[in-house]
Every structure is written in structure tokens, then in C-alpha cells.
Design brief:
Oligomer: homodimer
Pfam family, one (chains A, B): ApbA
Number of domains of chain A: 2
Number of strands of chain A: 10
GO molecular function (chains A, B): 2-dehydropantoate 2-reductase activity
Enzyme class (chains A, B): oxidoreductase
Structural class of chain A: alpha/beta
Family (chains A, B): Belongs to the ketopantoate reductase family.
Number of helices of chain A: 12
Shape of chain A: globular
Order of helices and strands of chain A: EHEHEEEEHEHEEHEHHHHHHH
Helix content of chain A: 40-55%
Pathway (chains A, B): Cofactor biosynthesis; (R)-pantothenate biosynthesis; (R)-pantoate from 3-methyl-2-oxobutanoate: step 2/2
Radius of gyration of chain A: 19 Å
Largest interface: A-B, 23 and 23 residues
Chain lengths: 315, 315
């Protein structure tokens, strides 16, 4: 097989980092940019990374998705708050036998993408990455970076690994991006929410780092209770997450450096929050199964209030 | 019967206002002060009120509870965060046949006071008052002012009205303070929580006025859901609050001027929050009956975190 051509939709802290790594490893990568387009066309992409700094002085940068070549793998690295643009974007950039790789947080995004491109052309990716954008085309990779890849099938049936995710995984590994393959994408999504729901939510609502949330006995308890509600939510999807997994997440967070969550960074930068992907979709999935996750619902309503204030400011 | 002598423990926005009104009506009132003692001794109490401004140039001010005369009615107008002081204070200032009137927010405070002074010497009072302290001995009464009085009996048995609450009610009415008599103190306490729990909690957590909370569809919904949880809590105490009462509270708040709740004022002034009286005690009462009020619990844990930050700052 020929080498896969990659499109990166959303060249920010996440898409810019992974895309730059793929290009540096010799792959053919095409970047869609918005506000940073002019700057990146002239100066390329700069990546400061704990694994070694590098600059890509020449990148295939596009301001308009219609000018991009059709690609084998279209990486969706936008914020989910921009996903209403996908139905217009994806048909322009996806090869007939290409696949969309959704590198976003939250639940149910693959279903939305499958509605646009078809059920057999979607892969989910969960990123465990700590990365910021310092300025136009200037990315700071602080820590972590692993991507968990999982094949999407209708109703999130677990279909195990496929050749194509193995091949994409190989490309990522060639780019020194650690890869896990998930046999059950939906389980992996719920597992990631065990961390994302308490820490993303409470860090914004209480203006706190992960360390502050863990140091206080009351928020630590609330974090744990929220994790158990996520587990109850997963159960409504027929997915089992063990108590040991919760213990592991708490322990892992205890040992992390004080961490500003992605939602807290969005909030501090006054960007719309990914409330629906991370909170709304899991809540609704559980509710359809007759389970009301009350504490997550409490956070959801609080975050919707804070998000509306941001959106009002930015109008 | 001779005229009743009043002690006011805690001469702030609430105690100062009611005490000043009682003295202005000719009653014998004795004020306990802390930081404002020197100032009030020299300059008296100044009340700016929507019902008419007045100054009391001479007041019976005390810095030390042991120097106060024993009184017929000891009004507890401290913040509940100061209630650990009551076991030392009350025995000094309460006449043998006197009664303690608890003018505080939250649940279960009368029980704590009864443990100190005896079951037959406690009356509860619920204040619907909007009042701030502008400076030492300087009170600004903005709106409302009604007090609901209710007799306390062990286990909050509803005992109806008694002569003594009627008499105290008469004193308050003489001071132009509107009075209601509650036949069931515990029901009145739970009813007040229907308002206090959502608005006090969310105004602090989300840095919002009542109007902002009502204008946003999501927080409005959360307010309503929290009100229903309070009703579920009341039910565990054998008290019934109707849906109509919730509708009335929502409607009443819609029509209010934008209002900074008492807990929000405390938070903004970096004073310890009354989290245990307003949230912790109702939660524990319901939990003993086997009911976990999950959304109130979520607010409780969030407020404990914010309260700990304040207490750390003020140490």
C-alpha cells in the first residue's frame, strides 16, 4: 500500500502537535488553519516539546477546506464546539476509501461523523496529551501524548482491531506517538470520561487545579462520587468499569503535576466549552436508558451557565 | 407582665437592625458587639432603612457577655459559623425563665441551643430580611423584614402557638416588624431552605445574582431541581411541601430585584460560609432517613471547598 496522506482539521495545540510529528516522520500531511493561516504559511510550525523541540519551516497549510487534496486519513482535531462545520468540511477532504479519525473528547462524536461519511469510515481516537498553543503556529507540548485508537461500528458495537487502525497506529508510532488499540471504543470513551467529567467540570466551576481538587477532602470525595456516576452511566451502555479503575485514576491524579484541564484552559481563554460532548451526551445516553446521573447533571447545568456567559462575551 | 428585656447576640446587619427597631419602639435592649464595640459606644447605631432612617445615639453596648444583664429574650443573631460560642455565652445572659430566640438560617440550630439551655426555652425565628452593614454600627435595610416565629419542642414536634411567642410577636409588631407565627417550626425551616439552598449555593458557586440564575434556562432548571430535592428532604422529616410552594418561590424570585444572597455577601467579604447550617444539616437529616439528596450534596461539597479557601485566607 502507498503511504497514507493525512489531513489535520484544526491545527491547534492538539492537531498541530500530532500533525507536525507525523510530517516530521516523513508522512504527507495537510493542515487546515483559521486565524494562524497567514503566520504558518510564512513561518511554519514551531513545536517545543519535552521530547525535543523542532520546527517545520514548510507545511502544507490551507485556509479553505475546498483547496485541500483528498486524504486517506482526515484527523478531526477541532474543538467539538466547532463540529457543526464537519458536514460541510468532510466531503471535500475525504477520499472515497478514506477514513475519519476523531481525536476529540466526549461521547457520541463518532456517531455524528458517521451520519456524514458513513458507518464504515470512522475511527475514534482518545488523546492523553498535555499541550498548549503559545502563539500562532507555536505549540508547547508539556507532557504525555498517547493516543488510543478504536474502530467505530454502528451503535458502538465492539469490533476489535482492524488492519486500518493497525496501519494508522504504525504511522503514529513511526512519529514517536505512543499508541494503544482499544477493542471496544465505547468502553474507552466512558473510561476517559471517568477522568474528564470530574476534573474538567470542577476545575472550571471551582477555579481549581487538579492538585487543589485532590488536596481538599470534600472535592476529593465529590470527584470520586462523580467517577462512580460515570461508571453507572457506562453500565447503561452495557460497559463495565471496575472500582479498581477509579482507584487507579485517583492515584494517577495524585501523582500528576498540578494540572490545568483542557476545559479550564478554554474557560480561562474565554473559548466556548465542550459541555455537550463531555457532559450533555453521556447524560442523555444514560437518561435514554432510564438513569439520571444527578451529580453530573448538576455540573452540566452549572457549566452551561458559565459557557453561556463566555459565548455572550465573544459575540 | 413586666416588659421583656432583650439581648442581641451579634449586632450586625440582622441583629443590629431588629435590635435597633425594638429599642426605638421603647423596649429595653442590650447589644453584644465585637469589632464595632468602641465605635458604637461612642456613636450609637445608625439605621438607613426604606421604612425611614434613624439613629440611636445611646445604646447598651457590651463587649463581654459576662457584663450583660440577664434577659428575658436572648436573640441569637450571630452567623451560625460562630455557634460554637453559644455554650459559653447563653448561660451568662439568659434569665432563669428566659427564652432564646434563634434568628439564624438553616436547620437543626434550635436542637443545638436546646442542648445548652433546655428543651423548653428555645424559639425559632426565620427572617426574610435584606440588610447590609455599611460600616461599624451602620446598617442599611434594603427590603423586606418579616420574621416568622415558631415554638421549638423536642424532635421538632409541631406544638402550635404559645403565649410567649405571641408576646414576643407583639413586641416585634410594636417595633413595626411584620410577624408570622408558624404552627410547625420544622416545616417553616424546610420551606425556607427551598429558597436558601438553590440561591445561596449557586450564587456563590457561579458568582451570580438571583436574576442571572433565573435568566439562564439551565440554572433556572437546576434551581427548580434543587427545590424538589429540598421537598424530598422535608418529606424525610414528615413534612409536606407542595409543588405550588415551589412555583410561588420561583415566581417570587422572578419578581425580586437582582439580589445578592446572604451567603454571596459573606463570600464576597471573605467571611466563613454557613455551609453546615444550610446544607450539611439538611443533608445529614435526610441521610439518616436513608435519602441521599445528590444535587444538594454536590453543592455542599463545592461550597466546602470554597469555604476552606476563605478560612485559609483569614487565618
Amino acid at each position: 500500500m502507498l503511504e497514507r496522506r493525512y489531513a489535520i482539521l484544526g491545527t491547534g495545540a492538539l492537531g498541530g502537535f500530532y500533525g507536525a510529528r507525523l510530517q516530521k516522520a516523513g508522512l504527507d500531511v495537510h493542515f487546515l488553519l483559521k486565524s494562524d493561516y497567514e503566520h504558518v504559511t510564512q513561518h511554519g510550525l514551531v513545536v517545543e516539546s519535552k521530547d525535543g523541540d523542532f520546527t517545520l519551516s514548510q507545511v502544507n497549510a490551507y485556509h479553505d477546506v475546498e483547496k485541500m487534496p483528498r486524504c486517506d486519513v482526515v484527523v478531526v482535531a477541532l474543538k467539538t464546539t466547532q463540529n457543526h462545520l464537519l458536514s460541510q468540511m468532510l466531503p471535500h477532504v475525504l477520499k472515497d476509501n478514506g477514513v475519519v479519525l476523531v481525536l476529540q473528547n466526549g461521547l457520541g462524536i463518532e456517531e455524528e461523523v458517521a451520519d456524514i461519511v458513513g458507518n464504515d469510515r470512522v475511527i475514534g481516537g482518545l488523546c492523553f496529551l498535555c499541550s498548549n498553543k503559545l502563539g500562532p503556529g507555536h505549540i508547547h507540548h508539556l507532557d504525555y501524548g498517547k493516543v488510543t485508537l478504536g474502530e467505530y461500528a454502528p451503535d458502538y458495537q465492539a469490533v476489535g482491531n482492524t488492519d486500518r487502525i493497525q496501519q494508522i497506529g504504525n504511522d503514529f508510532e513511526r512519529a514517536r506517538i505512543p499508541i494503544d488499540l482499544a477493542e471496544d471504543l465505547l468502553l474507552a470513551r466512558w473510561q476517559k470520561l471517568v477522568w474528564n467529567i470530574p476534573y474538567n467540570g470542577l476545575s472550571v466551576i471551582l477555579n481549581a487545579t487538579t492538585r487543589e481538587l485532590m488536596a481538599d477532602a470534600y472535592t476529593r470525595k465529590l470527584v470520586e462520587q462523580l467517577m462512580y456516576e460515570v461508571v453507572a452511566g457506562a453500565k447503561t451502555s452495557g460497559r463495565t468499569i471496575s472500582d479498581r479503575f477509579i482507584a487507579k485514576m485517583l492515584d494517577y491524579t495524585d501523582k500528576m503535576k498540578p494540572y490545568r484541564t483542557s476545559m479550564k484552559i478554554d474557560y480561562d481563554e474565554r473559548r466556548p466549552l465542550e459541555v455537550e460532548a463531555i457532559f450533555g451526551n453521556p447524560l442523555r445516553k444514560a437518561l435514554v436508558a432510564g438513569v439520571n446521573l444527578l451529580q453530573i447533571s448538576c455540573l452540566y447545568h452549572q457549566l452551561k451557565f458559565l459557557d453561556a456567559q463566555i459565548r455572550e462575551l465573544s459575540m
